[in-house]
Amino acid sequence: MRTLKRYSRSWLLDRPFVIARSRSTEIEVVRVELHQDGMVGVGESKPTSRYGHSIESILAEIDDITAEIEGGLDRQQLLEALPAGPARNALDCALWSLECALEGTTPTARLGPVPGSAIVTAHTISIATPEEMADATRRELAGGARLLKIKLDDDRVIERMQAVRAAAPEARLIIDANEAWPASQLEAWCHALAELGVEMIEQPLPAGEDAALATFAHPVPICADESCHTRDDIEALGDRYDMVNIKLDKSGGLTEALAMAALAAECDMAIMVGCMLGTSMAMRAALPVAAYASIVDLDGPIWLAEDDEPALDYSDGTVRETT
Ligand SMILES: [Mg+2]
């Protein structure tokens, strides 16, 4: 007999998280618990209004399929039963977690990376004034970060990045514009950022308006985030992007995320594993994708004021599963 519980929880951030389209000081997530034979599987997801999701819509999607999940629906059947998105993610991760617990193992022990191994993760710098971004950069470096993901919009792009680079002459820098750039600036900004040693640019143009990416030689690799949710998106992106950012809340779980990683590799695209804000429970569920990723960006929990049952350790710019 399998039983499903679902609930939402709010978490305060310890500092505002500012990106091109939003500013957050608190987040709300949905958690799913699946209980069976004395074991429990857990999953967590977070809605993104950009994709039309809310806490209410996630809970409603879960409620609609609870009887089938409790009746034994498996992960492959779930792929057909629900569309990609955070509701399917919470359920898929809970199913992985339960399946492994019943076998006396864990998803990472089964899928990789080697449990306990330290993986370099990006640490995010929010949008602020150039001086504030330089200060935040120095704080992250002092805390051990070595790969920084700089959030940008379409304002003071080069000025902000010059300030960050001056504060971090040696650090690896990637940037995320969250769809905020006009195509008219793309080439000039990409070349200037290449000169600043930026090693990757994430989603510069709006999804659906990214055709301009196909018509110029990329001076730095460009990664699809908002343009890439599931396997269905990947092949069409090959002439525009060099890399895809796989996130469980977009793919609708680890099962689809692993299939995306395999398809991206077939299409000669590099892989980044990313996250929405969330607890370490949600990030741990994405760790198996890190085994295939050249960039890991799973710093969501370090934005929280507290993380009730830390499943991951963050130190010296890396993330590792607690043992
Ligand atoms: Mg992004």
UniProtKB/TrEMBL annotation:
<dbReference type="InterPro" id="IPR029065">
    <property type="entry name" value="Enolase_C-like"/>
</dbReference>
<dbReference type="InterPro" id="IPR034603">
    <property type="entry name" value="Dipeptide_epimerase"/>
</dbReference>
<feature type="domain" description="Mandelate racemase/muconate lactonizing enzyme C-terminal">
    <location>
        <begin position="130"/>
        <end position="223"/>
    </location>
</feature>
<keyword id="KW-0479">Metal-binding</keyword>
<protein>
    <recommendedName>
        <fullName>Dipeptide epimerase</fullName>
        <ecNumber>5.1.1.-</ecNumber>
    </recommendedName>
</protein>
<dbReference type="InterPro" id="IPR036849">
    <property type="entry name" value="Enolase-like_C_sf"/>
</dbReference>
<dbReference type="Pfam" id="PF02746">
    <property type="entry name" value="MR_MLE_N"/>
</dbReference>
<keyword id="KW-0460">Magnesium</keyword>
<dbReference type="InterPro" id="IPR013341">
    <property type="entry name" value="Mandelate_racemase_N_dom"/>
</dbReference>
<comment type="similarity">
    <text>Belongs to the mandelate racemase/muconate lactonizing enzyme family.</text>
</comment>
<dbReference type="InterPro" id="IPR018110">
    <property type="entry name" value="Mandel_Rmase/mucon_lact_enz_CS"/>
</dbReference>
<dbReference type="InterPro" id="IPR013342">
    <property type="entry name" value="Mandelate_racemase_C"/>
</dbReference>
<keyword id="KW-0413">Isomerase</keyword>
<dbReference type="Pfam" id="PF13378">
    <property type="entry name" value="MR_MLE_C"/>
</dbReference>
<dbReference type="InterPro" id="IPR034593">
    <property type="entry name" value="DgoD-like"/>
</dbReference>
<dbReference type="InterPro" id="IPR029017">
    <property type="entry name" value="Enolase-like_N"/>
</dbReference>
